[in-house]
Amino acid sequence: MITRAAAKIQQGRLTIYSTSLFVSDLLEPNFYQIERLDSSDSTKGYQRVLDEKRKKKLAEYLTQAWKEGDAFLPTSIFLATDKNINYDPTSNTISFDINEVGPFNVVDGQHRVAGLIEAANDIPEIKNFQISANIAVNLDEISQMCHFLIVNSTQKSVDTSIVQQIHSRLTNMVNFEEIPTLPKWIQRQVLKAEDRDALIITEYLNSESDSPWYKKIQMANEISSNGTTIKQNSFVTSIKKYILSSNNPIMRTEDVQIRNNILKNYWKAITNIYNPEGNLSDSALYKTIGVDLFNQVSPAVFSQLFLKKDFKTNSIESLFKRAFEKLDTEHIRISLPHFWEKGNDASGLNQAAVRKYATEINKAISIAKNEISDIQL
Q1: How do strand 104-108 and strand 32-33 relate by DSSP bridges?
Q2: Is 0.90 surpassed by the pTM of this model?
Q3: Contact 221, 37 (CB under 8 A)
Q4: CA 87, CA 81: separation in Å to the nearest integer?
């Protein structure tokens, strides 16, 4: 049984006990756990991956400062449990058996916890070091996830890809009564469902073995590999901005599978033009520049495809090739595979240049469209 002096804090329906813990408490079996977002299953967890460098830096500070007698860590950690903790208002103490209420989830402060434990492994006396802790009780996992989002959105930055994943999960839970009140800007993102819809597309393109984007997108909490060329954050942001926009005809269909297949065929056609041998894995085509440019072009392409209801890969490829023939000499180079090779022209484009090229391709598509349309008077 652990007994600590504590102040009871009531924030609406949320009960928090502000107290202190010893590092030795953290070392107790089953005392805490960290619900990290699973890169292979976005329905599990919510925490970011532990930054080993950040943990080590804190541990080194603590061990050095401890030797010099001036170690301090005033910021509190935020723990949560879905169970209750006994509170004695007469003595202002909390008492709990970790086997009954644990493990606590570390909602905020995982790097401090990891750094303290590593420091204690180096200097056993650090086990007696006290840290401030706020413990929330009767808080289910969904609410813990929401509070993690609130804390990290209002006080300090967190990887945008993790925020996108949480927004997506909350979109599917908007009718759950137990979800706490969220800040308005978070509510808007959740209700618009853009993160969820963009993640559906992103995960599909990244997981289909016949997709040009197969395993090229580094998803949230996923370790970077040689095959990844772009981060989830950048890919999702581009999808939201250009694909899920009101002017993109692809939004006419609510069938998610059809939408996914259209986009897969779209990128197959682009790959057939620029990377038919499949050997340009590090091409700028598969980075933010390529994604943004061809996502910007997609409304013009899909407008024509919807007229014929033909979204076959070869039809898309033919449309691009006809459009490229109409480009002027200043912009024709964008149609050449060499343009997209690593270190060549595309690698040096800024967003203004990307928009300019997209505009020129859109014009060329419009010209090609008028020439092949069946006009009846």
Answers
A1: parallel
A2: no
A3: yes
A4: 15
Who contacts 64 (Cβ-Cβ below 8 Å, separation ≥6)? none
**Rounded to whole angstroms, what are the CA distances from 172 to 41, 142, 159, 175, 220?**
15, 12, 21, 8, 19
Report the percentage of the chain scoring pLDDT > 90: 34
Place of tokens 């009780």: 137
Residues 6+ away with beta carbon under 8 Å from 168: 42, 195, 196, 199
Does residue 275 surpass a pLDDT of 80? yes
Where are any strands of DSSP class E within 237-359?
A: none
Q: Which residues pair with 136 in a beta bridge?
A: 16, 80
C-alpha 287/C-alpha 294 separation (Å) is 11
Write the pLDDT tens digit of every residue in 12-38: 888 999 999 999 999 999 898 876 544
Q: What percent of the chain is modeled with pLDDT above 70?
A: 79
Mean pLDDT taken over the chain: 81
CA separation for the pair 336, 273 (Å, rounded): 8
3-state secondary structure of 179: coil
Q: Does position 327 have pLDDT exceeding 80, yes or no?
A: yes
For the record, the structure tokens of 197 come out as: 């819809």
Residues 274, 280: contact at Cβ < 8 Å?
yes
Give per-residue burial for 257-279: e unless 16+ CB within 10 Å, then b: eebbebbbbbbbbbbbbbbeeee
Nearest to 12 by CA among 147, 142, 166: 147
pLDDT at 61: 85
Asked if 37 and 47 count as a contact pair (C-beta separation under 8 A), the reply is yes
- Collapse the DSSP code of 236 into the 3-class scheme (helix H, G, I; strand E, B; otherwise coil) and give the result: helix
Specify the DSSP element, H or E, that contains 21: strand 14-22
